[in-house]
């Protein structure tokens, strides 16, 4: 299965729509299960911090390689 090996190109509007789609399902899940998810808030916070740092690093790395 070569699904994850195919290269695609997305425009900014398409990526924006994808983010709105994913964000809306996060909000729906958060509203429906807020009491249950409150117990895992620290885990979600840790995941957010690590993935934010990782994405920021990848962004800086990509910005550095595009200028060469």
Structure description:
There is one protein chain. The chain has 68 residues and is mainly α. It has three helices and no strands. The protein has helices at residues 12-32, 34-38, 41-66. The longest helix has 26 residues, at 41-66. The model has no long low-confidence stretch (mean pLDDT 82).
Provide the low-confidence segments as ranges: none
Determine the N-to-C terminus distance: 34 Å
Number of helices: 3
| Percent helix range | over 70%
On the 0 to 100 scale, the average pLDDT is 82
| Strand elements, count | 0
Quick one: biggest sheet?
none
Output the helix-strand order. Answer: HHH
Strand percentage? under 5%
Rounded to an integer in angstroms, the radius of gyration calculated over CA atoms is 16 Å
- Structural class label: mainly alpha
Large-scale geometry: extended
Task: Please render the helix and strand layout as text.
Layout: H1 12-32, H2 34-38, H3 41-66
What key phrases describe this protein's structure?
76% helix; 68 residues; mainly alpha; 3 helices; single chain
In summary, what is this structure?
The protein is mostly helical.
């Amino acid at each position: 299965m070569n699904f994850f090996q195919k290269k695609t190109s997305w425009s900014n509007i398409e990526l924006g729509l994808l983010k709105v789609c994913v964000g809306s399902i996060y909000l729906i899940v958060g509203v429906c299960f807020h009491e249950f998810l409150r117990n895992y808030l620290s885990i979600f916070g840790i995941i957010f911090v690590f993935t934010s740092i990782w994405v920021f690093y990848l962004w800086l790395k990509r910005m550095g390689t595009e200028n060469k």
